[in-house]
Amino acid sequence: MTPELARGMAANPDLRVFIANGLYDIATTFYAAENNVARSTMPLDRVELVNYPAGHMMYVHGPSFEELAEDLEGFIGLPESPPGS
Fold first, then answer.
1. Which terminus of the chain has a smaller tally of CB atoms within 10 A, N or C?
2. Helix crossing, 30-39 with 2-11: angle to 10°?
């Protein structure tokens, strides 16, 4: 997938990539994503790799889901939600 993403990023200088990994994911290991990105021609300043203390579906682990939601909001530039909303 990284060659296609690299081509897309070259064609669109506004394209950014967010990669979320579960540290305990045995299906798609976090190191494979880190290694593929490091070996690619993707502009690293437009790639965000984040690891969460969960497995493959980090969104079913409450604390990881909360972190993921905050990170995605920051990545796409959503304003912060007021507490309790």
1. C
2. 50
pLDDT in tens, 40-66: 999 999 999 999 999 888 888 999 999
Give CA separation, 80 vs 8, 50, 69, 76, in Å: 29, 19, 11, 11
Q: Determine contact, residues 61/29, Cβ cutoff 8 Å.
A: no
3-state secondary structure of 52: strand
Taking alpha carbons only, the member of 39, 37, 31 closest to residue 16 is 37
Residue 36's DSSP bridge partners are: none
Distance (Å, rounded) from C-alpha 85 to C-alpha 33? 34
